[in-house]
UniProtKB/TrEMBL annotation:
MF-aspect GO terms: oxidoreductase activity
Entry-linked SUPFAM superfamilies: ARM repeat
Biased composition (Acidic residues): 1-14, 28-77
Protein name: HEAT repeat domain-containing protein
InterPro entries assigned: ARM-like, ARM-type_fold, PBS_lyase_HEAT
Pfam family of the protein (one): HEAT_2
Superkingdom of source: Archaea
Amino acid sequence: MSNGDDEAADEAEETALSADTLDQRLDDAEEALDAAETEADLDDVEADLNEIESDLDAADLPEPDEDDEDAEDPAAELEDRVADLRDQLEDQRGPYADDVVAVLEEAQSTITDTRWTEDGRPDVVAAVESYLDSVSDELDTELSAESDDPDELADAVDQAAQVVEGSALDPDEDEETIAALLEAAETLQDDLEAAEEWDDLTVREQLDAEGFYDVLESENRKDFPAEWNAVKVYEELGEVEPIVKALETFDSDFMEENVLDALWRMGPEEAYDAVHQRAQKRNVRPVQILGKIGNDDATETLHDFIDGDGDAALQKVTLRALGEIGSETSVEPVAQRLDADNYEIRSAAARSLGLLGDTRAVEPLADVLDGDEANEVRASAAWALNQIGTRRALDVLEGYTDDRAYLVQSEAEKAV
């Protein structure tokens, strides 16, 4: 090809990629989109848009004047037109059987993942039955739920989804059928969302539905706060489950404090999970309750609370709790606190070893009794040796009957 031909070709290409030409091509695409009647027509429009977008990327269109805020940007305007036409294209597509199935899958999850109230469950049943009737009518089949159980209802919706998916519905030939199925599926989802679920109830309504207040006489239900009155009655009856329910339900510092006090007095194993969860926030009262409960599983958490020189009050409470739990795994970490800088922590550690009652603690306690500067700590060590009560522990104590500290003397005399 001659140079003249090359120049002519370049000029033709520039004309094809000009803003006016691209704009005209978009006009043609928009006209074709308005006239499209089938999915194949829409596919053709999409192919045209892809080609126009490719040419737009390759076009060397003039840049807007940066100093002129009102200057036109041909490239940006054309890109906006392409995006708008793509949105219109997607709006004209379908509906498809896959759209129906997607809504039904969401409805299944809603049914199985939701806790329904007594008033809400009949509405769920009615919504599912209505949709199954719609599918049966549209696809000339028979669908029904085997029972009112949520899992059975969800299975029936899944069966309907499989029928829709297996019907090979064509988006052109079966457009009205698909649209009707989609509308029915969306109505099902709307009805499910309108049905009353457990989370729609207030805390008091939830507890009332579970019979939490049934323990109160009718006149006592009016006393404020009724929740706390119920907890006191349950404590007297020794019923732990409603008390734990109150702990997990009420977002109230007052209720939490009083419920934890009740659990501390009771020390029930059934409350372990709820209390252990709160103890991990390093709150004192839950740690005390764990000591009362005496579950060895708590020791790993509690050992972390006595590591280092942090909160002295928490460490003392934790050492006491570890002693009450009585796990042999606690002997070493507790004994290490005999060297704490805080004399109160050292004293609590000595007493904890006495509660643990492990003979491995005799020698460390003997060292404390001999060398600690604080008489309070030495007295705790003497008490601990008496609690351990082996011959070796008592022999150590017998040498302190004339100790300078009265409490140490008293413990030594018990040993003698």
